[in-house]
Amino acid sequence: MKNLHKSVMINEIISFLPLTRSINIIDATFGGGGYTKTILEKFNVNQLLAIDRDPISKIFAKEIESKFSNFTLINDKFSRIEEIVNNSKFKDKKFDIILFDIGTSSNQIDNAQRGFSFNKSGPLDMRMGASDKNAYDIINNYEEKNLADIIYQYGEERYSRVIAKEIVKKRKIKFISDTIELSNIIKKCLPKKNNQLKNKTHPATKTFQAIRIYVNDELSELKTSLEKTLKILNKDGLILVVSFQSLEDRIVKDFFNHNSGKRWRSSRHYPELPDKLATQLKIITKKPILPSASEILENPRSRSAKLRVAQKI
Ligand SMILES: C[S@@+](CC[C@H](N)C(=O)[O-])C[C@H]1O[C@@H](n2cnc3c(N)ncnc32)[C@H](O)[C@@H]1O
């Protein structure tokens, strides 16, 4: 299987890594292995533990495994990061670098059979790995209000109620089973100006994002995992997170702020917290780092990426 994923902001990521000191690293979102490979080739890595919930990651890990004995891939969710470490040969190890490049890889989006793409006909699935939910079940069985809430909450789609109503109307005639079928239903619910070609964002973008986030429980995954990193990071160790949409970025920003002694909550998805948490982090990137114009030109999927970095103190 050919790796179709182009790693995003890899140069910015590696600019934070120490060049000579021996380091232990977790790549919590291995994907096609782009970050892992570059880091193993260029840095003095003691051990690199990679995690990915998608079983296809095992295919991309093969070549790396054959070249590097200090590389291990675990096919699991990153919300179990602490358990993964403690149930493996890494038990009681602390890490110097923990990387997250969240969202989906091109190997997932561009495979029509996975059901992530509104541009390619495929089954309504959207599972990144093992999950008790799938898009078909949600679209065809959830009550209209529940569906509208999901589309609004996880897609920030202002036409969520209209879209949910139309989905329910259409599924009474015939179950909705194909991504293009769903995409066409959504298209009809949005005002004409949102459907014009000059509008760069596809009208189904927000609804597909919402369903995907819900199917994979992505926001809870991120929150749980970030909390756990604090227990397995070395003093002076770095957490680097690349996110691709505002809900995720807010979670990262809040997590960094709260744990660096600030009292601030930007997202309604983040639970209420005590006034001030113990200071465990220092924020390294006051503002997120964005991809360069040339990277966006070369890889348009990088355009919404934001990199935030914090250091354990
Ligand atoms: C954007 S890709 C990472 C690409 C990688 N940095 C590279 O250079 O090839 C995101 C990956 O994270 C994985 N992923 C997303 N959520 C996850 C989770 N909760 N636990 C584990 N892996 C997850 C996806 O399956 C996907 O392979």
Question: How does this model look, in words?
Answer:
By secondary structure, the chain is α/β, with parallel strands linked by helices. The protein folds into two domains: 193 residues, Vaccinia Virus protein VP39 (Rossmann fold); 85 residues, Orthogonal Bundle (DNA polymerase, domain 1), CATH 1.10.150. The protein contains 14 helices and seven strands. It has a seven-stranded mixed β-sheet, with helices on both faces. Strand 2, helix 3 and strand 3 form a beta-alpha-beta unit. The longest helix has 15 residues. The N and C termini lie far apart (42 Å). It binds S-adenosylmethionine. The site of S-adenosylmethionine has 22 residues, from helix 2 and strand 2.
Top CATH class of the largest domain? Alpha Beta
What is the average per-residue confidence, as pLDDT, rounded to a whole number?
93
Estimated radius of gyration: 20 Å
Name the helicity range: 40-55%
Distinct small-molecule ligands in the complex: S-adenosylmethionine
What is the CATH architecture descriptor of the largest domain? 3-Layer(aba) Sandwich
Number of distinct beta strands: 7
Q: What is the CATH superfamily label of the largest domain?
A: Vaccinia Virus protein VP39
Oligomer: single chain
Apparent shape: globular
Number of helices: 14
Low-pLDDT residue intervals, each spanning 5 or more residues? none
Strand content: 5-15%
Terminal-residue CA separation: 42 Å
Q: What is the CATH fold-level name of the largest domain?
A: Rossmann fold
| Spatial arrangement of strands, main beta sheet | 3-2-1-4-5-7-6
